[in-house]
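Morning, I've got a small favour to ask if you have a moment. I've dropped the whole record in just underneath, so have a look.
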Amino acid sequence: MTYKAVFHVDQNEEPVMNLALNNVFNLLNAIPDQEHDLVVLLNGPAARLVAGDAVAVYLAFIKDLVAKGVRFQVCRNALKRFEIPENQVIEEYEIIPAGVVALIDLQNYGFAYIKP
């Protein structure tokens, strides 16, 4: 069995992002040596958490999770809406066209939806 989940963050709030990252970390600890496909998807105001000083707080944690196979995605529409240049987004984030479409697609592919 492969554990598949998308962790949806849509708020520009440090406690919410911390909760999402800790949820992923705890899941990985609960399923050692199990196959997994985990995505942390940011859209809406949470897009502000992927660049500059806001992301610095989480960078080491994100890099550790990426090394464990976790994927991070951010919505291009949200980046545009909040005027965040794509070249300022850290390399660990994949920029996707529309977060809401990705959420629907992932759920259609059997991903559990987790809203920290």
User: Anything to note?
Assistant: The chain has one domain: 2-114. The longest helix spans residues 14-30.
